[in-house]
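TL;DR need structure tokens for one chain.
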Amino acid sequence: MIHRLTVCLLGLAVLCWDSAPATAQVPWGNGFGFQWQIGYKQAGGGYADLINDGIDADINIFYDLDKLRIGAGGNFVSFDVQEPFEEEGISSVELHAFVGYHFLRGPFQPYVQGRGTWTRFGKEGHTFSIEPPDPEDPEGENPAERRSGFGFGVVAGAEYRVWRTVGFEANVSYDRFSTDDLDLSDFGFAVVSDGTKWGVRVGINWYP
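>> reply
TL;DR here they are.
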């Protein structure tokens, strides 16, 4: 997944290479844009007992209205899992809507953004399964329960417009969420029902 995202980022930069350089005269008009980001994410709260390091991908569409940015998108994370599930993993899929504010309008644009989120956690392997896997089929189909919930997030970062149609950016994020109860007491875990996620990302914005 990360390889494909990297190829997309590089391909978009090449397509826009002949655009005009960003200067003070570049028109920062209102309009639509697209965003691709990759990064690192870590879990906290109740879910920290179950999951840890994750690879993060964030994809968005947005509309700029003066210093405001309104948009929606998806976030996808593949987390490593704590003992006794070291050979498995958990993925989270998030859908979100956001409103951001850019403090400056120019080549360098620091910003802050608030998100409303819906998140679903699902297993990679047998992570959520109380019953042990079939010894005759250790890699077999063992349907896992998924856990879904709502939350909110904050993103703070900065974008630098290197061409008229392309900007690169970096940011940090913090999310808090609640889900349906996940009872892993048979494995020595408490009931998990909420958590946090924080991370860092870099990415590219395209203004068609």
